[in-house]
Amino acid sequence: MNKAQFIVLGILEQLGEGSGYDIKHIYDQNKFYQWVDIKIGSIYHAIKQLHKESFISEVKKLQEGNYPTKTIYTVTNEGKKKFDTLQKKSFLGLFPDFYGFKLALKLNTRRTEEEINEYAQMAIQIIDEKLDAMKAHLNSLEPNSHRYTYDSFFIQHDQRLYEAEKEWIQEAVKNIDLIMRLEQ
Question: What pTM was computed for the model?
Fold first, then answer.
C-alpha cells in the first residue's frame, strides 16, 4: 500500500479541496509524522502521482501576493474508489507497522460505525490467527531446546504487540460513536 497516497487522499477528502500546503498542514497538525514514517517530500510526490493518474484533479490556481501560485485539488470519483480500497487494506493491515487500523480510522470520512465494527472484527480475527500461528510454532519445538528459547524470546515481543493492538482496536470500537462525533 502506498501510505503517502492514502494520507493525501484521506486528508484531501476531509478538506473537500486543498493545496499541497493545506495537506501538509493537516498532516503536521494531526502529528501523523509521529507514527507514520512518511517524509513531507513523499506527500508532495504522492500529490503529483495522484494528479497524473487522475485520482485528484485541479480545481483552481491561487496567487496571493508574492507567494508562489497554489494549486487547489479535489478528490475525483476514481480517487474515492482508490481511497476506499486503500482504507480497507489499512483497516486490515496490522503488520509490520501496527498503525493500519488507526490510520484508516483517523482518515475516515464515509465509513459507518457498523462498517468500522466489521473491519475491527476482521482485524481482531487476523490478529488471533497470527497469535495462534505463533503458539503453534512454539508448540512444534522441543521445549528446552536452544531454538525454542531463541524463538520464544522474539515471539513474546510480537505477541505483546499484537495483544496491545487488539486491545486498542477493541477500545476504539467501544468509543466509536465518540470518535465519529469528534471527526465531524
Answer: 0.85
**Who's near 126: CB < 8 A, 6+ residues apart?**
92, 94
Please report the pLDDT score of residue 183 as a whole number. Answer: 63
Please return the burial class of 101, using the count of CB atoms within 10 Å of its CB with bins 0-12, 13-18 and 19+. Answer: buried
Cβ-based neighbour number of residue 88 at 10 Å: 15
d(CA 142, CA 12): 53
SS3 58: strand
**DSSP secondary-structure letter at 17?**
S
CA angle 53, 57, 62 (to 5 degrees): 135
The residues near 123 (Cβ < 8 Å, ≥ 6 apart) are: 91, 92, 94, 100, 101, 169
Average pLDDT of span 28-56? 91
Q: C-alpha grid cell for residue 25?
A: 498542514
What span, in angstroms and rounded, lies between the C-alpha atoms of 131 and 129?
5
Check if the beta carbon of residue 124 is closer than 8 Å to that of residue 144.
no
Q: What is the pLDDT of residues 81-130, one digit of tens each?
A: 999 999 999 998 765 567 889 899 999 989 999 999 999 999 999 999 99
Question: 58 Cβ partners below 8 Å, 6+ apart?
Answer: 51, 71, 72, 73
The continuous run of DSSP H or E covering 82 comes out as: helix 77-92
Residue type, 35: W
